[in-house]
Design goal:
The chain has about 160 residues and is mainly α. The protein has a single domain, classed as Arc Repressor Mutant, subunit A, CATH 1.10.10.10. Helix content is about 70%, strand content about 10%. It has a three-stranded antiparallel β-sheet with strand order 1-3-2. Helix 1 crosses helix 5 and helix 2 packs across helix 5. It is globular and about 55 Å long. It starts with 9 loop residues before the first helix and ends with a helix.
């Protein structure tokens, strides 16, 4: 082991490993619930959320990739699968011949509207129902602090 590295304390390592476990188990549980309840994957739901949050119901592929923190190729492949199911469609960008929009279809809007109540129920059950008001406030402070550190790096690609 390198003497120049400041290793995690035992407590930090335990918290870090629990954090990693949470980051694996929570999305898997939410994915399973969405699949069982609405036939959507968690990535499907994430894409549809971004599209339906847009007033026009459409988002440029590059902006969607950035919002999801996905590679553009991953967005393209996933959108292709969602297109096959009629949830979204692509539109060319009139201002940029190389650009494209992903647009939510009526079927995609219906799918997220059907999935949202069950998804919110799962989120409540798995996360918020387990926390006191004080714990929720602490979690908010912690996530804001960590996001403030990570978001500038995500914007600059560092």
């Amino acid at each position: 082991m390198s003497p120049d590295v400041e290793w995690l304390t035992t407590e930090q390592e335990q918290v870090w490993r629990r954090w990693l476990a949470l980051n694996a188990l929570l999305p898997a549980a939410l994915h399973h619930a969405l699949q069982a309840d609405a036939g959507l994957s968690l990535p499907d739901f994430d894409v549809l959320v971004h599209l339906t949050d847009s007033a026009a119901g459409r988002v440029r592929v590059t902006d969607l990739a950035q919002a999801l923190q996905w590679e553009k190729s991953r967005v393209s492949h996933h959108v292709t699968r969602m297109e096959r199911r009629g949830l979204v469609r692509r539109e060319e960008c009139p201002d940029d011949a190389r650009g494209a929009f992903v647009v939510v279809t009526p079927a995609g809007r219906a799918a997220i509207e059907q999935a949202a109540p069950g998804h919110v129920g799962a989120v409540r059950d798995l996360v918020f129902d387990q926390l006191t008001g004080a714990e929720l406030a602490s979690l908010d402070v912690i996530t804001r602090k960590l996001l403030a550190r990570l978001e500038p790096a995500a914007r600059t690609g560092d």
